[in-house]
Amino acid sequence: MLVANDVPAPHQIDDAWLVQHDWILRRVILDDSFRPALRYLAESFVGAETNIRNLQANAEAQKAVVDSLGQQFTAQDRIIGADQQDVLDAVRALGSSQQQQGMLDIVKRIFDPRRAPTTTWSSCRRSRCTSRRSPAHTRCWRTSSSSTAPWT
To answer: pTM of whole model > 0.70?
Structure first.
């Protein structure tokens, strides 16, 4: 059984109509010299449209990847900034606590009656003293209590 289809007017035939009805036109075309032209119109348009769709989908996927990476970099930057601030705060707190401890040690040494005199050595500019820091030279040592000799 054959069913007749409405044939559109020439101004209604466009690329979409050719792609949709190319299988019918191939079967009924009378002159074989028109087949390559019909194939070119149908397949090249479909191929180009498919390629454009693929390229557009790839471009959108790449844009999504770039956006995701940008968000990850921003999050990592915030994390690094917070970690740097934490380290800076810890260093400041440690420095402050060491300074406070040093002040307390100074106050304890001043007011502690049982403290022993401490000896600290300084470098002597004499060539025979610089490596050994000999207690024989008075410029090589100093004590917190002037009554005690450095070697006792």
So the answer is: no
